[in-house]
């Protein structure tokens, strides 16, 4: 079991929620998906249709567009307190030790007194552009509205097809900005 998981499990309060060994999450379907990804020598977004050896190199699924798996949320309460959450769908057959944008504060997720932002897309682009933090910084230092800040970051700071975000301001303004063809806004 990973060190962080073990520490979290030791410190948790009794909640009545059943805990299970991490092997519970290893399913025959996941093992088969990993086998096929390794055989094809490809990395794939988890929860997509499995890839095959003969998949063309440049498809919507291989270039980062038309992929899904990450879920983002933002919230503001009646006092202007903000929160953001981002959960990645993950990668199958990723390089050992790879860290994506989701856990990098300021890249895939950021909250300050101006806004809460959750971003998704190609992790390298999101990390390089510090997408979530830059939205908040443009509001704080340039006085931009949430929508203008989000649109600027997505249109000017990350390559087309690489990112999307959902954000809320402390005053309740909500925006979704993306430069991908398949970002879902439900």
What is the gist of this entry?
With 186 residues, the chain is of the alpha+beta class.
Walk me through the structure.
The protein is an alpha+beta fold. The strands form three sheets. It has a four-stranded antiparallel beta sheet with strand order 5-6-7-8. 28% of the residues lie in helices and 20% in strands. A hairpin with a 3-residue loop joins strand 5 and strand 6. Helix 4 crosses helix 5. It contains five helices and eight strands.
| Beta-strand percentage range | 15-25%
Helical fraction? 25-40%
For the largest beta-sheet, the strand count, sense and barrel status come to: 4 strands, antiparallel
| Quaternary assembly | single chain
Low-confidence stretches: 1-8, 57-67
Architecture blueprint of SSEs:
Elements: H1 3-11, H2 28-40, E1 44-45, E2 71-76, E3 82-87, E4 91-92, E5 109-111, E6 115-121, H3 123-129, H4 131-142, H5 146-157, E7 163-169, E8 174-178
Antiparallel strand pairs: 1-4, 2-3, 5-6, 6-7, 7-8
Helix pairs in contact: 4-5
Name its key features:
186 residues; alpha+beta; 4-stranded antiparallel beta sheet; 5 helices; 28% helix; 20% strand
């Amino acid at each position: 079991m990973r060190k962080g998981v073990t520490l979290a499990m030791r410190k948790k309060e009794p909640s009545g929620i059943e805990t299970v060994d991490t092997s519970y999450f290893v399913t025959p379907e996941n093992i088969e998906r990993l086998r096929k990804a390794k055989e094809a020598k490809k990395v794939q977004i988890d929860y997509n249709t499995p890839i095959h050896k003969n998949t063309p190199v440049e498809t919507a699924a291989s270039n980062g567009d038309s992929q899904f798996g990450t879920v983002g949320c933002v919230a503001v309460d009646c006092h202007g307190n903000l929160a953001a959450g981002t959960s990645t769908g993950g990668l199958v057959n990723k390089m050992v030790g790879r860290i994506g944008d989701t856990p990098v504060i300021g890249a895939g997720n950021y909250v300050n007194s101006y806004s809460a932002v959750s971003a998704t897309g190609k992790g390298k682009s999101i990390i390089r552009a510090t997408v979530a933090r830059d939205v908040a910084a443009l509001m704080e230092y340039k006085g931009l509205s949430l929508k203008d800040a989000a649109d600027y970051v997505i249109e000017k700071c990350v390559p087309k097809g690489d990112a999307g975000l959902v954000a809320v301001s402390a005053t309740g303004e909500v925006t979704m900005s993306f430069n991908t063809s398949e970002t879902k806004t439900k």
